[in-house]
Amino acid sequence: xxxxxxxxxxxxxxxxxxxxxxxFISKRGxxxxxxxxxxDSNLPDALGxxxxxxxTLGEIREVFQVSRDEMGTTDKEQWLEGKIYGEAICExxxxxxLVMGRPEGEGCYCYTNNLLKGVLRKLMRHYDVVVIDSExxxxxxxxxxxxxxxxxxxxxxxxxxxxxxxxxxxxLSKELNLKFKDIFLIGNRITNSEAExxxxxxxxxxxxxxxxxxxxxxxxxxxxxxxEPVINLPxxxxxxxxxxxxxxxxxxxxxxxx
Length: 258
Ligand SMILES: Nc1ncnc2c1ncn2[C@@H]1O[C@H](COP(=O)(O)OP(=O)(O)O)[C@@H](O)[C@H]1O
Ligand SMILES: [Mg+2]
Known about the structure:
- Helix content is 47%, strand content 17%.
- It is an alpha/beta fold.
- It has a single domain (2-257), classed as 3-Layer(aba) Sandwich (Rossmann fold), CATH 3.40.50.300.
- The termini are close together.
- The structure holds adenosine-5'-diphosphate and magnesium ion.
């Protein structure tokens, strides 16, 4: 099992790229779990499966948090496992999807979160690959899902802010001693060769592996405007072709891991 987390500044294209990676990797026959880890959840829409999501992990966590003391001798881990498998995992056509939902409320969630961590770890083992669409901030780096990722993909746009976030993510993973096997960079929504050069140089200087430079694509904006899932992007576009190159790289990593 290989866990890939897609991160970066807000609005750089994490969800667009996550959705397309999930779409094409699962189409290649890998057993895939998609995780929407952004509280401002929009991966289901990007994948065109919003109607299929019933419960979020956050909702189940809340129910557990308020009723755990009354559960008596119930095996709590088993209870959580049953709820998550039964109600939160959405079985879509070619992949499964788990939406994390809102973060926890007031109070101490240590016990709950510890149990959840174990259940999630067990759950992920059922898959060849787990793709996580992360939230924009960096606080989540120290906890939960991301800290266990094998590979981090940082998405940046042409802005200095996007690059600064990429740099911070790299530093943070060192500070927190997170054991990623690799940190990759993707440039997205690129419109000119100067930006390409800037991002290439940045990747070199920071020792990040540049996976691809993805262009601005009018069709993505169009689909977004019409409220259509981004996975409807034409198969023959430059954007799709380049995303498929990334898919090849990731599938190689998955195959090397087994
Ligand atoms: N390559 C691209 N070309 C045109 N529009 C894009 C491109 N990538 C992303 N977008 C648009 O930019 C916005 C932000 O993308 P999104 O994937 O939601 O970012 P994030 O998940 O990082 O916040 C969306 O409206 C999306 O449709
Ligand atoms: Mg997003």
